Amino acid sequence: MKVFKFGGASLESVERIQQVAAIVQSFSDQQLLIVISAMGKTTNELEKVAHNFYLRKREIAAQLLSNIEQQHLEIAEKLLGNRENPLFDQLQQFFTEAEWTLGEKPVRSYDYYYDQLVSLGELLSTAIVSAYFNQAAINNTWVDVRDVFRTDDTFREANINWEVTQQQVNERILPLFKQTNIVITQGFIGSTDQNESVTLGREGSDYSAAVFANMLNAESQTIWKDVEGLKNADPKLFPNTINIPEISFSEVIEISYYGAQVIHPKTIKPLQNKQIPLYVKSFLNKDLPGTVIREEVDNKHLPPIIVLKKNQVLLTITSRNFDFITEDRISDIYEMFHKLKIKINLMQNAAISFSCCIDHNSEKIELLMKALHNDFKISYHEGLELLTVRYNQDGMLEELSKGRNVLLEQRSPVTIQRVLK
Ligand code: ASP
Ligand code: MG
User: Fold this and answer.
1) According to the model, what pLDDT value does residue 236 have?
2) Is 5 annotated as a binding residue?
3) Which ligand is closest in space to the CA of residue 208?
4) Residues 148-162, mean pLDDT to the nearest whole number
């Protein structure tokens, strides 16, 4: 069995969905579990619905939702040729449920409502793709992943309950392959034991696919993207990027941790743990070789890898009374970061100070400064970039930092990181 994942870009138009169908068709003699995310930029649009709903701007929210409805109905009608298919009742039901949510008075957390509304994107896209495939004789079964992925109630960043989910995969997913070779389901979403919808974090569909691959003991996972494969830098930011034909799990987990946006960082562990190779391929041309990510790859052949994380803030936290920043103080500071869910991208400590580079989030930074204010003086630089270079070659780092101020630098034999202004 193979696991495929198709992202928003591969579903953003009728033509692209037809292209996806052609890819799947060419594998249809095999068992495939297909994980799909929301079409195009639907998730961003749904975020706006949730936002307006929570601000009690109900009319704007309803209008935005209705735009999303029209877009989906139009695509579905073009794919299926008419509105006779039972799909249209199913879509109607999803929209009615979302409208009910919009009719509620927001009494719970924003994150809760966010998940109830934003999870709609994947339900719509999978229902449409599944109905279209069936009509095109690509026989498949549609599954609501909320009946399979059981999570805790950390809305917007839900954590999977592995034991329960594995059991549901065995009981609810495996038997479906007796009916059809293809099972289609949603990425990015799941459900609590109270049947509340959750999401797993933005861009989380890669991770959903990896969880399935792990639990189904799949032979491989393939992420179909609009790029040829993994490159040594983001082609949107750098010219002359190089394709990487093969790379190890550990290398990819490092670079996605530093901010490379190719693959969701949580994707690697479930695959590595079961030694399942991950292919990254182009849905625009399935015959291009793409990239394979697996355990044993010789890093000697890798080109320099460049990751640039924008919109960074450098905080320097200095103890007011000249206390050393030792274990106990670091542990207090860390506790605050943990409480506020602030991820540290780079850190360094000195005698009485601690510096770290984090993503810009004004709200969280303000809360952090308030909490630490009594004991620490905090200085703050914003609008920075965090540059990471692995396997640096002569002159490359200097070239990339030319004309910039280096506020902090860290080096290991393989990795160099610089905070640039
Ligand atoms: N649709 C979700 C998002 O845009 C999940 C994903 O694309 O992986 O974040
Ligand atoms: Mg998406």
Assistant:
1) 84
2) yes
3) 1
4) 97
Of 386, 379, 383, which is closest to residue 343 (Cα–Cα)?
A: 386
Provide, rounded to the nearest whole percent, the portion of the chain with pLDDT above 90: 87
CATH homologous superfamily, domain 305-420? VC0802-like (3.30.2130.10)
* 43 is known to lie in a ligand binding site: yes
Contact indicator for 243, 27 with CB cutoff of 8 Å: no
Pocket test for ligand 1, best of 43, 119, 200 (most atoms within 8 A of CB): 43
In the chain, what are the domain boundaries? 2-226, 305-420
Contact present, 418 and 387 (Cβ < 8 Å): yes
β-pair type (406-411, 353-359): unpaired
In angstroms, the CA 398 to CA 416 distance is 11
2 bridge partner residues: 32, 220
Relative orientation angle of helices 120-135 and 58-80, to the nearest 10 degrees: 10
Convert the pLDDT of each residue in 274-312 to its tens digit. 999 999 999 999 999 999 999 988 888 899 999 999 999
Distance CA 268, CA 246 (A): 15
Residue nearest to atom 2 of ligand 1 (CA): 203
State which amino acid sits at residue 270: P
Write down the pLDDT at residue 149: 98
The fold for domain 2-226 equals Carbamate kinase (3.40.1160)
How far, in Å, CA of 232 to CA of 334, rounded?
Answer: 32
Question: Tokens for 242?
Answer: 């190089």
And the tokens for 247?
């790379």
**Res 259: pLDDT:** 84
- Residue nearest ligand 1's atom 3 by CA: 203
Distance between Cα 40 and ligand 2 center (Å) = 7
- The whole-number pLDDT of residue 324 equals 86
Tokens of residue 193, six digits: 């034991």
Average pLDDT over residues 371-396: 93
How many angstroms separate the alpha carbon of residue 184 from the centre of ligand 1? 16
As for ligand 1, residues whose beta carbon falls within 6 Å of it are: 7-8, 37-38, 43, 121, 187-188, 202-205
- 110-124, 195-209, 299-313: which range is least confident on average? 299-313
Q: Tell me the average pLDDT of the chain.
A: 95
Q: To which H or E segment does residue 280 belong?
A: strand 278-282
User: CA–CA separation, 200 vs 205, rounded Å?
Assistant: 8
Overall pTM > 0.70: yes
Beta-carbon contacts of 239 under 8 Å, excluding residues fewer than 6 positions away, are none
Taking only the tens place, the pLDDT of each residue in 14-30 is 999 999 999 999 998 99
pLDDT at 329 over 90: no
